[in-house]
Design brief:
Elements (H helix, E strand, L loop, with lengths): L10 H4 L6 H6 L1 H6 L7 H13 L3 H27 L5 H10 L2 H6 L6 H20 L3 H15 L7 H14 L6 H26 L8 H9 L40 H4 L3 E2 L3 E2 L6 H18 L1 H14 L11 H6 L1 H8 L9 H32 L10 H20 L4 H7 L1 H19 L9
Antiparallel strand pairs: 1-2
């Protein structure tokens, strides 16, 4: 607050991902049940807080998000102490995270960014706890947060949860705790699958969000202006629904009338902001998906260039995120120094692209250092196999790889925020690798990787 960073409560009314505030207050469970655009958990959480706190909601949200940051830092410190015997490494890395521009900014945004980090850290904590005490409680501590991740952000799909569950089950095959792991993983997968089946039955979409076509189109058609109004690509994705009237079958929404008209049939929510949960976006997103697939086939090089650009953006400062631009100016010099965010010096679009790329270099090199060390460790120990690495290392590495690939393929100019969400996981690997290097200098066996 002393830096002028305050939570903008208006986000509750504006952000695409959130239901109409009247629905959150007075029609929460039906509104969440019939939300096809977003996974249910965060809207459910928002609705509960709004209902309980009433007029004090702005203050409650501010305290709630500050508390999430505090818990994240405590969990990060605790986990780092498990992978490093050096008393300084956990403290230094945790302080670097806690005082980073990204944390200062995102703890003041009424969004699920830091909440995603919290779920990741809870699951990771219980991965270590289960290794020490293989109980059902610790198994559920691993998989329930992972299921809630899938029910909070659509990026974390069954395509991620199932492989992570299989890896964990395979790791404990023929070991104590195998039955507990199978049970915990099954519960997590069933929870998510159940929601997907519900969406398939009601909306004919097997997933937690129907926006994938629109998300992909933003990346595919980035910097491509299409003048032909008969093609859906001529309209910017996520525009208001009335602009798409020529692309929607007549009376498309008839079968959904009476289910939840406020959220499924109104063009605007809260009287003035675009309602992206309108049921007709399901059809629009499918058309964007088809158009994107066709364009990728006919212009593969253009799409690869956009993916490459998104891949670079992944490693830039979290403060480059569009909704963080305003707050980042309030900590301008700190963001430049601590976050190496050079885009503050840009005077036009071309300069911004150049400075954006330069700003990504430190984080990119750090990722190469950490993952390069892990790869070298695997190859240098020819008698050991990949699965003889500690399970948390495997899960963290796979999750980071998944987020990088999916966000680069599907998103444009927002995946630096996706990287920030998993930043604590990367910092755990960083602490582990630094400890390994220190052990090597002392000619001691490595402590954290195996």
């Amino acid at each position: 607050m002393s830096l002028g960073l305050r939570m903008d409560y208006k986000a509750l009314f504006v952000y695409w991902q959130y239901l109409d505030v009247e629905s959150l207050k007075h029609n929460l469970l039906p509104a969440v049940w019939y939300d096809h655009a977003q996974p249910p958990f965060f809207n459910l959480l928002l609705g509960v807080i709004v209902k309980i706190s009433g007029t004090a909601a702005p203050v409650v949200f501010e305290v709630f998000f500050k508390l999430i940051t505090l818990v994240n830092c405590c969990l990060l410190l605790t986990i780092l102490k498990k992978v490093s015997t050096n008393k300084y490494i956990p403290v230094v890395i945790t302080l670097a995270y806690m005082l980073s521009p990204g944390v200062l900014i995102f703890e003041t945004e009424l969004f699920y960014t830091t909440f995603i980090s919290l779920l990741m850290l809870i699951s990771t904590y219980f991965l270590f706890a289960f290794d020490m005490k293989r109980t059902m409680k610790n198994s559920l501590g691993i998989f329930i947060p992972l299921a809630l991740l899938c029910l909070t952000r659509s990026m974390y799909h069954l395509l991620w949860l199932v492989p992570v569950s299989v890896i964990t089950i395979f790791y404990y095959k023929n070991k104590t705790g195998f039955r507990q792991v199978v049970t915990g993983a099954s519960i997590g997968v069933l929870l998510v699958t159940g929601w997907y089946i519900k969406n398939q039955i009601i909306f004919h979409s097997f997933g937690s969000s129907t926006w994938v076509g629109m998300n992909l189109a933003r990346n595919v058609f980035h910097d491509n202006e299409i003048a032909d109004s008969t093609q859906i690509m001529s309209i910017e994705p996520f525009s208001k629904i009335s602009l798409y009237k020529n692309f929607i079958p007549e009376d498309y929404d008839a079968k959904f009338r009476g289910l939840n008209d406020r959220d499924l049939l109104q063009e605007f929510k809260n009287d003035s902001f675009v309602n992206e949960n309108h049921v007709e976006y399901i059809e629009i997103s499918k058309k964007y998906l088809d158009a994107s697939k066709s364009y990728i086939k006919s212009h593969p090089t253009a799409y690869v260039q956009n993916v490459f650009q998104s891949g670079i953006i992944f490693f830039t400062s979290a403060a480059v995120y569009p909704f963080a631009l305003g707050p980042s100016k309030k900590i301008l010099y700190y963001d430049i120094l601590a976050g190496f965010n050079l885009t503050h010096f840009a005077k036009d679009k071309q300069q911004r692209r150049i400075l954006l790329t330069i700003s990504a270099v430190p984080k990119l090199l750090l990722y190469f250092f950490v993952f390069g060390t892990l790869v070298i460790h695997v190859f240098n120990n020819s008698r050991r196999k990949f699965f003889e690495l500690k399970l948390p290392v495997i899960i963290i590495a796979c999750t980071i790889g998944f987020v990088f690939i999916v966000s680069s393929l599907l998103e444009h100019f927002e995946n630096m925020r996706f990287r920030y969400e998993i930043e604590p996981l990367f910092l755990i690997l960083l602490g582990l690798v630094i400890q390994q290097r220190l052990d090597r200098k002392k000619s001691k066996p490595t402590n954290g990787l195996t």
